[in-house]
Amino acid sequence: MVEKLNVDESNDRVSVVQYSREPSVEFFLNTYKTQQKVLENVRSLRHKGGRPLNTGAALQYVKDNILTGSSGSRHQQEVPQILVLFTGGRSNDDVRNAVENLKGIGVMIIVVGTKNADILEIQSISQESSHAFFAADSNYLSGIEQQIFSATKKVDTAALQAASFGKTAMIRPHTHASSDVVFLLDGSDDSQERFPDIKDFVQRMVADLNIDSNKDRVAVVQYSNTADVNFDLRRYSAQDDVLDAVRGLSHKGGYPHNIGAALQYVRDHVFTSESGSRLLEGVPQILLLLSGGRSGDDIRTPTISHKPNYALSVNDYEELPSVTRDILSFKIKRRMGNKITLHLFTQIVIFVADSKKNDVVFLIDGSYDSRNGFEEIRGLVEKIVESLNLGENRDQVAVVQYSRDATVNFYLNSYSSKNDVLSSIRTMRHKYGRPLNIGKALAFVRDNVFSSSVGGRSAESVPQYLYIFSGGRSGDDVREPAQSLKENGIKTFSIGTKNADTLEMQTISFTPAHYFHVTNFNNLQSIHPSVEATLRGTEETTEFPTVIGKK
């Protein structure tokens, strides 16, 4: 990280603090003036040791003793203040007051959690969800290094120059509580039946805005295979006129929904002075993108902000009203943000999972190898199920245990409500038995659980996922059934402990990246974020499965 900075008394300055029960300063912001000196001292750092982990006290210490003028901070000169916090566990003390105090003086906090860090805690400490990172183990830190560094470079300085979609423009400071808000709505064939709910959502949002040519302005764009402006930012200066226009919207139609092309269109034709944008006056530009499915084109190049500043997910279009308060609260916070942390462009993505459905099967090690970790396996399965959208014509779940042979706890079509599925998982008893015949269990799941007769929907092209937990090496050959699952389009995630055979588990997995290793089942909760992230990536991308050589 330091190697990427421009360390110099007049440019970037660096300080390092270690903490456990109490914090210890390794060096202050004004201790070293060259990159070489900073690197030498980082390389010679010795581990502090100690317990418990008092993160709250450490954060307050940094505010009171490090980010001060006497220690080299240039806060009074409006130099961005960035704190990168590394934590490997849950704090023993309360972090909330210290976090608020740091944010109150404009400090941007980036949090990197490893191993036993509390996910909710690191998200609450970080300023935005995009500033919270998690690595299952410290060995994986190098893999997210660039993401962390990129987050540090996103701080807006108080300077009046800003990049306007790649062009340099002079931005005049703007002190009025106003915004240019563009709604980019999914107008594809997929959203036709639920378009009244979409219009209702926009109306609710508009009703809480202060519409006026000198205050909030609104534009609406629909997209499918192309994008069309319903009205731009110049069109209406009264709230009633905007509401009437929204009520009168007709569904665009078309397929597929090309989000990339729509973003490009908005960038080139809506966030412009000609269309009523007040970008050059320093007015915050807010894009609310409503999407009901995967984009039919590449979204990476045309995105207005490289990553969304704020992302929300609802299970159905009818749930859209539930997020209006969150969005309005976020908008107010952005208005009140100080000039160090205020982003001129805010991209809010609302993903509606209305059209998504999956078949998810959990294949759980029920042998003697897993008897001490069965509660932890059950806990991770519960967490994954909690994030699913269970219901008729939506996500379905089945659970199977295996040892010498496989036993079904319930099939894909056994339950249609999340409460029933969770209740069955919580009351599930450990199967026991040996040996561990993974190959036989994989074949059983393929033939008897993903079958249409018990709820499998492969004939409807519904994505199918298998999670397999293993605490040891298989007593039989896994290659043929593993390959068969891949050929049937079933994407397998494998989770193994130290006694599992890594090569065997990677062979079973859809790709090697779909294998997760923990030293023992007690550490399962630490990989939950990584498993969830890989599942989302699998849903959104086409990957090449692990190819198994046949004899």
TrEMBL record:
InterPro entries: ECM_Assembly_Org, VWF_A, vWFA_dom_sf. Residues 1-148, 180-300, 359-531 form the VWFA domain. This is VWFA domain-containing protein. It is found in: Secreted, Extracellular space, Extracellular matrix. Gene3D superfamilies: von Willebrand factor, type A domain. Its main location: secreted. GO terms for cellular component: collagen trimer; extracellular space. It comes from Scophthalmus maximus (Turbot). One of its GO terms (biological process) is cell adhesion.
